[in-house]
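Protocol step 4 of 6: record predicted structures for both targets in the notebook before any analysis. Target 1:
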Amino acid sequence: MATSSSGPSGSSADAPRELLNSPHLESGIRKSVRRLMPMLVILYFVAFLDRTNIAFAEEGLQVDRGVSAGAFALGAGIFFIGYALFEIPSNLLLKKYGARFWLARIAITWGLVGAAFAFTTNDTMFIVLRFLLGVAEAGLFPGVIMFLAEWFPNRKRVQMFAIFYLAQPFSQMVGGPLSGVMISFGNRFTPFLGWQVMFFMQGMMAVVAGIVALFVLIDSPSKAPFLSTEEKTAMREVMEHENAVKDSDGPRGIVPAMLSAKVWYFTVIYFCLQIAVYGTTFYLPQQVSSLIGRDVGWEVGLVTAIPWAVGLFACYYIGRHADTLRRRRNWGTIAFAVTGTAILVSGWAGANGQALLGIAAITVAVSAFLCAGPISWSFPTAFLAGAAAATGIGLINSIGNLGGFVAPIMRTAINDLVPTDTGMWGVLSLGVLAFLAAAMTWGTRFFTARADDLLGDAPGAARRETGR
């Protein structure tokens, strides 16, 4: 790395200008997107299937194996405990063994654990397997975030995050019907119970995806056989320069990253986001059912797919165009504020029998928080590199994902405290923290990362805006 990379802010912004506009860099990025992104989306899609398929097996596990409602609820939540505990160690091991091997290992391991649910016999086995599933899957999401931060320059990063995020709405749209088809197939054409077939088939999907990932993913541009020498050089030099800027600007090492106030700042933002995400998605079928006056079934399933379909396009569009610091800050702030407002409106609509307004509000909320996610990750990846990135990104994701554990508990507690027929106050509580995330995202204007000067803004614009 050139020593000038860690020089003054003006030179750090100007030095890679020619490289950022290089046709070799652009062609290298296009090739890398075609090679890497489909595999990463597939991995995340399968991960979401294995996270959410227990909802389709709940009745079968209770009737066929005697799994109690209490054990089911504990198992649903304990996944996030295992996931949070092993996020940072998994990320550090990814740095040691390389993304290609470690991401494949994660997929294969969680696939085997997911398939083992087919052999569940009692409460204890179910709870243990849910914990192990969280342990096995730990590191996938932050590992991919770190992987993308090492492959793609800051200017392109939100677009890559957004493409990766597309797996979430896509899995929500097709995951339910796919699980239903597998259950029906198992009941009709195999000697096994339908839910057993579903667990086993979806677990094996993850194993196959992991094996394929070993042959598709590449640890770094310098090792990519699909890139020309000029493309490798352009991508390597841009990323080396950016990483040198990060090293001079952010925490270095594991402990400094864990103690970094900026890391914890973005951890709080991500926690607030996950409260909105999981609090909405966990109860989306029931909320839609209440709004349209139908039992959960194919009609509810079709209506439930609408927010995710709209969100898919919104996420991609915003991610593609959020290529300057000002856009990321402003659009991120707006996305969080819209998320909170839309959740509040959906709660009010449900309490007052306004079905169309309720569905529209849910659609806006889902679209907004899908846009907020990729933008949120652009900030910490602009100042974290090396072991600090492995630790910081793992910490943000692990603590943030505990929102998935807290959200249903918080919603239930609020509904018990202020009982209503529609559960309006529980829904409203989920939107409040989104406004805190909006305020904190706007607050990022007071501490910018030097790597942000490598965006499409004018050199040093971020500092001039804050008077630094």
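Target 2:
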Amino acid sequence: MQLIRSFLAYIALAAAILAFLPGMAWLGAGMVCLVVILGWRDMRRVPRAVFVVAGLALLYALARDPDLISPAAGNMSRLAGLILAVTLLSSVLSRTRDLQQISVSLFNGNPVTRYLSLAFGTALVSVPLNFGSVAVVGSVVGERIRSQGDSPATRNATRAVLRGFGVSPTFSPLSISIVLTLTLLPGLGSLTLLLFTVPFAAALVLSGLIWFEPETPQRSENSENKANLAPWLRFAALILAICAGVFLLSHWYKLSYAYAVTLSCMGAVLGARLLAWCRKLNPPMVNMSHVSNELAIVGGSAFIGSVISGAVLGQISGDPNVPVWLWPVIAAGVPWVFFAAGLAGINPIVIGTLTGGILGVIWPVNAVLGLGIGMVVGWGVAAFGTPFAANALIMERLTGYKAVDASLRWNLRLSLAGLVAASMLASAVTVVLL
């Protein structure tokens, strides 16, 4: 059964890549549904619920407006292809020696340097690896706990990894948060959004030094654990190449942002395969049978968001009668909605889909940047500040620190500060642009 699910996932990925051909969107959406149905027994509760709601959205569209189904299937296929491409890229890169050297070297230096290197290093690694960055860097922290025990250094390292990954939805051009936001807010440009969110992400990580546990001096690391500059340069060059490909395809060739990310990631995967063949190596194909949860959440949310957007758009005649002063207030509340939903265990993809699907249709086009900032920054704070986020659960498994402690209790003050700052920024941008 796993082989069949993996094969169907590869077909869904191929359909997303060949989206310019007639019928590929339907093929991709169908394959995604089959992968989810075949993996139903192994799925968690939230992905099942999301997929059931997507099924209800399909029934609603069939009854009310069947024309909503085709664009919804296209959205489902595109975003599912994105997740499959990023998963494939993550699996390929996690095998490399460069990444192993980088992850070990992040634990070197004095407490402040170590915190910053772990936080920004995890953020950098998360651009192509997504959750894989938490597993890679978090395993180093877990090994330190097993060998030397619990200490302020390991607790600060856990904070750094969680915060470093948490800001990736705010600044990473390849993250599902950025892609989903740009998909649901078509009037928003990626460069414009990143111009505000990248500095915010850096400031959020640096602010973490305020809520930082004092450490006792420790002996310096052995030189054998230090990575030289070459692995960092190679990895940074790869990330820059992928991001450059995304911007080239989306801005120059006018491809959709999700499609551009998928093609750019697959270019890196194929390049890695060709390089292995040149070295007379033949690494095995990545097993894609374990992606049912991700496909259910991302694909189901994409379908739900498209149906909601179409239904809301069909009910609106002219501009909505909303007072001008209310838009900044709504923008200020968006990050808090993401955080509150995260505390309730609701996946941010679901909240992002509902927020973008409903508000994106009625939001003033000239001020859509304020909504986009609120969405991606709220997504990021929820990623490191709530105990049910996937990265918190991964770190709990790797380190033994309870997610409610590591994510919620240790990061609560930073989360609240980040939410206040995000509300002020989203609201101010909305006021200026209205």
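Step 5 preliminary note on target 2. The two ends are 54 Å apart (CA to CA). Residues 2-214+228-433 form one domain.
Proceed to step 6 after PI sign-off.
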